[in-house]
Write a structure and sequence with these properties.
With 272 residues, the protein is of the alpha/beta class. The chain has nine helices and ten strands. It has one domain: TIM Barrel (Alpha-Beta Barrel), CATH 3.20.20.370.
């Protein structure tokens, strides 16, 4: 009966002789273990998460020349542009229709701080305006691409004006914005289009010099087929090809091409 008691006393003495560990030191050891743990490794940088090999350089500030504004007096029709004359090493990312509504694309725009321009068609966007409200909240600009996406060339003035002014009014009622840039569907327009656009407050009709459709960049003009500062680029929608690259993948491929040329992405609305 005495042996257990003796053993207990010995154990107590041994415990009492053990060096005490400061509570703060103990917390420090636990923190160090968490840092060394693979599960606590730092998250990848945003540019790597979206398939880039380097961070996207920040664009320079807006040019000193103020942008054109809706309602400003302009002689004649609005200019038609697919390229901006600028010394800045920037190109411009634009998207049409609004058919592809991937929530992760919103994350991509936010994390990479991409100044994208979305040209929206009301009949295509349908009930998906909430997605573009989220895009706008992370910095995207929303612009005009008609109500119903018709080919405007050859249509009478009243019909063209209804398409352009109608989508202007729709965007204003939904978002409180008055779009001043307009892209005609399919890039098809005529003099009547330009007159109707001017009457709807459009300051520039925006086309594109090159488009990323799948894995390739297709140029609409120019013999060298290389990106140049000031190019307006279209990342085309491809909802019909469910097995093809996503909007995020096409954007990442285009961004890599942009970086290879030593360029970055600027905000189109700052230059027009």
């Amino acid at each position: 009966m005495r042996r257990p008691a003796a053993a207990l006393v010995a154990a107590t003495l041994l415990t009492g002789c053990a060096p005490s560990v400061d509570p703060i030191e103990r917390l420090g050891r636990k923190a160090a273990q968490r840092v060394r743990s693979p599960s606590a490794a730092a998250a990848p940088q945003p540019y790597r998460r979206w398939g880039l090999v380097a961070p996207l350089p920040a664009a320079p500030g807006p040019p000193a020349r103020p942008p054109l504004t809706a309602g400003a007096p302009r002689p004649g029709p609005p200019p038609v542009v697919d390229h901006v004359d600028t010394p800045d090493r920037v190109v411009f990312l634009t998207y049409d229709d609004g058919a592809e509504r991937d929530p992760r694309f919103v994350d991509m725009v936010r994390e990479l701080r991409l100044p994208v321009s979305m040209f929206l068609t009301d009949s295509v966007v349908g009930p998906g305006y909430g997605h573009f409200a989220r895009l706008r909240s992370v910095g995207a600009d929303l612009q005009n691409h008609t109500l119903d996406h018709p080919s405007l060339r050859g249509l009478p003035y009243a019909g063209q004006r209804a398409e352009i002014c109608g989508q202007r009014d729709r965007l204003r009622s939904r978002f409180g914005v008055r779009p001043r840039l307009f892209r005609p569907p399919y890039g098809s327009y005529d003099r009547t289009t330009l007159r109707a656009a001017a009457d709807c407050g459009v300051s520039a009709v925006v086309l594109w010099r090159a488009s990323m459709t799948d894995t390739e960049l297709h140029f609409t003009r120019g013999h060298d087929h290389v990106l140049r500062p000031g190019d307006i680029l279209l990342v085309a929608s491809d909802d019909d090809d469910l097995d093809g690259p996503t909007l995020r993948e096409r954007t990442a491929r285009l961004l890599r091409r942009i970086q290879e040329r030593g360029l970055t992405v600027g905000r189109l609305e700052d230059y027009l």
